[in-house]
Design a protein that fits this description.
- The chain is mainly beta and 928 residues long.
- Among the domains are: 12-303, Alpha-Beta Barrel (TIM Barrel), CATH 3.20.20.80; 792-927, Outer Surface Protein A, domain 3.
- The protein is built from 13 helices and 61 strands.
- It has a 40-stranded mixed sheet. Strands 6-5-4-3-2-9-8-7 form an 8-stranded parallel sheet. Strands 1, 10, 11, 12, 15, 16 and 17 form a 7-stranded mixed sheet that branches.
- It is elongated, with a radius of gyration of 59 Å.
- It starts with 10 loop residues before the first strand and ends with a strand.
Length: 928
Amino acid sequence: MADQSSQTIATVSAQDLLGSFGVNTHSGLFDQDGYVNAALVIRSLDYLGISTVRDNFRSDGVPGQVLQAMADAGIKFDFVALNTVAANGSAGVQSFIDGVAEFARINSGQVIAIEGQNEVDLFGTNYAGDTTMTAAIAVQKLLYTGVKANSVLADVAVYNLAMGREANYAALGDLSAYSDYANAHFYAGAASDVATRYANSVTLASSVSPREGYVVTETGFTTSTAATGVSVDELAQAKMTLTGLLMAYADGSAMSYVYQLLDTPTFVNTVASSPEAETAFGLFKADGSPKLAATTLHNFTSLLNASGGGAVNGTYQIQGLGSDGHSLSVDKAAGGSDLVIWRNVSSYSTATNSAVTVAPEQVTITFSSVQAHVYVYNPLNGLEPIASYSNVSSITLPVSDTPLVIELGSNHPYTAVELVASDPTLTIDTASFVAQIDTLSKTSGITTVNLTDSHTLEVASIETMKDIIANYGSLLARISGGYDFVIENVGTTYKIDMAYDKTGALVSTSNYTLAGGAVTALDVTSVSGATDHYSYKNGVAVDETHIAADGGRTTITYDGAGRATQRVDIAADGATITQFYDAATGAVTTKTIFNADKSGDVWHYGITGKSYTSEHYVYGAGNVFLSLVRLHADGSRDYYEQRNADGSLLQDFYSAGGVITQEVRVAADGSRATTTYDSAGRMIQDITADKVTTTWAYDASGTLVTKTVFNADKSGDVWHYAITGKTYTSDHAVYSAGGALVSLTRLHTDGSRDYYEQRNADGSIVQDYYNAAGVITQEVRVAGDGSRATTLYDSTGRKVQDVSADKVTTTWAYDASGTVTTKTIFNADKSGDVWHYGITGKTYTSDHYAYGAGNVFLSLVRLHADGSRDYYEQRNADGSMVQDFYSTSGVIAQEVRIAADGSRATTTYDSAGRMIQDITADKVTSNW
């Protein structure tokens, strides 16, 4: 076996090596299987550590949305021209170029290549009806020249077209002038000498593009058990996929695309010799679960992307690696170096459908200096080292059909780097959030997500939405303010937006009709049953109709410039709102609201040539006019009218400043009442229907100073307010029919009386005088005949003297507590009465003296506190006298009768008031 000790070991960067890895996807071609799920595709690519795909291009439908979602996630593309791209001639090729150019413009730097038609010898071609190989060549020329002529795509590589059968490349001739890279498809199949088989494929493909580099746009293995003689098992797929990528890179392939990312169980390649094979070429199963090949690639890219290494100490040599063996020294961006060793051998025989045993070669790696740590990995087995060495100058490894990675310059084995958020609050726009959702879900420390633009997450497909809900629920739950979804499906003549709530339940569907890229119609249907329709012409709205779930309808009509001219809203109950607009300003000119019973409102706006600029009519059921309001430009009233069910009418008139000037009230019988206002809106006169006239007068400050109310018969009232220079501040005069004064009241500021006068129909007058505190001090009563009665009051308003018209004088005296202590009543002849109250220190508490004319003493009664008698004395005109004495309980104890001649008779009573002895004036004694 050849010894590589004398050979140069190529040194490459991990970025260059891994950057040459690509994978085929069918998101731009299929509306089926896992490729319609952008989240699944992106997550699978993230897992592989591969960010470049080969796919067909579509800008419409779910494929277009998934491709854009992939681009948003940072995926780069080689877009393959469909074999039918030129079916309608060169215009089809140009349309394809224009579409890719627009995609590249939006996603700068993410279209790395455009590829000619795929395997035209198997799948055919069509150039305006020509299906020959000449047509395929013509399409390639059109494609290349069109791409290079496009300012956006001029620097994008153009891959030559590939053949399904390598022998057929010869039919293409030299197309190097119309490609930047030769294009090989390499399927090892039953080849036992993989390297020779590969070299032959590349040679034939390169014959079409001599002097150019090459790419391998398809290489892979199917694991379909139904594809007998073609398929391999998953272990062989894993080994040979990684080996194939390394072999291609080492041989000089600029890009190598594994075929393919996902199994496609619903797709059958009817052209293939084994149609079932196409279903299981995936590195992942259709549901996204990784096959061993995906796991192996994940482990390999993880190892080469690992951080934490240092500079490699010295150089190294490899011995014992045979002619099928290869190696690469890979410098990692994060430091350190990995030595990758593999053998270009087959691991499986498709002829026998069994694994091939590859005897290991003992390979010795000798270092020019002692290595502190060396870690050996088999990517098929995981990310744990299969061997570890310390302080060694050489190691010996068995190398079979599995590539090995020898890590140098690191002081520890591979450790996955955990993604940790720098801030627990993630502030991000919705598009970036959706594009990065897989990475964000793996990032610890995010507690809150603040979406900066919208809370509607635009996703590529229903399958994508369901995937996101199922796999990223924990992250979604951290979105502050909630979220929902929308799926946009765009075609050349349509666009469909489907809105979903956060659970994935459909909320509404918006269908756009497109013509030349412009919207001509939009129809929105909600799951509630509500619908919306919009029509457009030349990009300008024509009309729109909205129908609610309950049947209510709104219609808006526009003029040719897209300005609203009319809007009609019809509720489910029949209520209708109609609005007309000024097309130039967009302002409403007329608005009507009418109910099913014809009650409603009408507004007119923008009125010119009048003292008002708008008005509002109100109608009752049956379209009966109820009221009218006219308004100035500032919203103040100009006029108001109200018509009542009884036939009465109210009219209010206002100044230009919106201040009421007059109100007219017309009753059903035609009688009229009027209220007039001054310039400040204060009432100055009111005349009722029955001729009651009220007037108001104000001083310069607007304070009411006079109010009058007079009836038709001149009876009424007059009030004066804010009186100064007097002991009172207001007064109120009352007049009877004919204007005769009935009463006058003068009041202090606090509302208490200063004076009151009442004039009665009989000519009598009552005059009350009050002190400054409003307490009555005197009342004078003058009778119609001029006789006068007077009552005087003390400072607390208690009567102290009353002199009647017939000279009866009554006086009152009070103690300090306000209790009456003495009351006297005396007539002009000096007859009268005297009462004393509150007597203390005696057996009685009050007494009552009675006097006859000339002030002759007639009688005396003394009373206990309970009102019973203590003593009674009566003096008669003949000079005789009676004296009664009572017990403390008011029971008579003795009566003494003294005759005018001085003779005395006595009657004595027991404690019950019964006579027990009587002694007459002549000494007759009776006992009981």
